Amino acid sequence: MADDVVKTGFFAQNSTLNKCNAAILSGISIYNVMIYIGEDMEQLQELRKKANNLKDNRKYEQATEIYKQIIDNHESHCNDWDYWNYAFCLKKQRMYNAASEICKSLLRINKDFVPAKNLLCWCLFYSKIKNKKSEDEFLEASRKVLKLCSQKDKYSPYTITVFKVLEHFKHKNDYPAEKILKCTNMLDPELLNFEPYRIKENDKEIELASQLELYFMHRTKALLNCGKYDQCINECDHALKSLNKFHYNNDIWFKWRMALSYKALAKYKESIEGLYEIATRKKDWFILKEISENLYHQNKVEEAFMYAVKACLRKGDIDKKLNLFLLIADILISLNDKVNAQKHVDFVYHFKIKEERETGTYLNNLISANNFEISEDLDLDMQYKQLVEFWTQIKASRQKRNTGFIKKLLPNGKSGFIEASDGKTYYFQIRNIKNNPANLHESQKVTFCIEDGFDAKKNKPSKIAVEIKTE
């Protein structure tokens, strides 16, 4: 029906000619016919003006009725924009199917009418992409949008559709790096907005990442996972230099991907420099693990051991730390401590068996190369407790303890400053007090260790006090 409505408008010239011929045959003068046509055009212009005014004032339901009246009663003088405005008002009322049919009819007759292409794509976006019902429908609608419109057209949903597809793939359990990389290839970064978005939520303004930042976020992760390490390094470096503001710690993750890429290319010095910087701002165990692996590759075994031990003692799921425990075993073998190495191997082996997971090449090689005898049965909880005690002892034995006193407690009740015996001052958090934090007071004597930290206010690395004990 929509197609028929549109066709009548496009055959306007023929319709007018037919009316003239009919008028002549019936004895009505051309003059009278032209008067009728003139009156018809005046009435059409008045209706258009009224409908356009309603549309501009967002009164879409009322505007729809008038546009329909225009098409029904003045089809011989309707143009592309009459039908487009009609479809636009339908779309604004979420009548996406009806609006789509009108756009399709327009495009069948005038395939180069870009506004109709864009409007059809927006209908697809709102009905099947933004409000995703099924993956197949979502991907099919996305393909249509990307085929019909262009990123260069700022009125099209091309760019936002690519980002919706990227977000869809990002949350897949089996991360599809190749597909994500292919999607980012469909975007020209030069055409992306580099300014952050700002939205209001619960009367609070929230700032979100720009299109360009999101592009680099998706692309660099995909490049890393695809093993395109040199390209990943270059694009991470480009992102760090071209973006003025970062969100979701993306500046850290760009440096993280660079470090992992350098490591994969056996450029351990470059990798570890980036990791040291990251470790001052992020306290995740896996960052320390990567530092340990880099040091181990450089035969800095003692340093590697300490970072691996610290990583083991950081918070994190045990099932995700299994390769870390095997790294510790590997290092302990290098340090001629096969007894403790086997304890780590034993734990990982039984943990994997309990979880019904494959033991894996790394574990099997450690067992066979060192003639480890795996125990028939193992109390995993007890074994893990013993490993924690071992790591704690190692860390304590290799860390230098300093003396000082509580110089100042901050009003937030969560932190303060310690002055060491050499006069230097160190920031600390009360959660790092290992004994009796409730009775903490200024001038109280303490012993402590020093670790790398990050001063968020000054935006630079710093030294902080940890493992604090009161006297």
Automatic annotation (TrEMBL):
The keyword Transport belongs to this UniProt entry's keyword annotation: no
Superkingdom in the source lineage: Bacteria
Keyword Transferase carried by entry: no
GO MF annotation terms: DNA binding
Keyword annotations: Coiled coil, DNA-binding
Coiled-coil parts of chain: 37-64
Entry protein name: Cold-shock protein DNA-binding protein
Origin species: Flexistipes sinusarabici (strain ATCC 49648 / DSM 4947 / MAS 10)
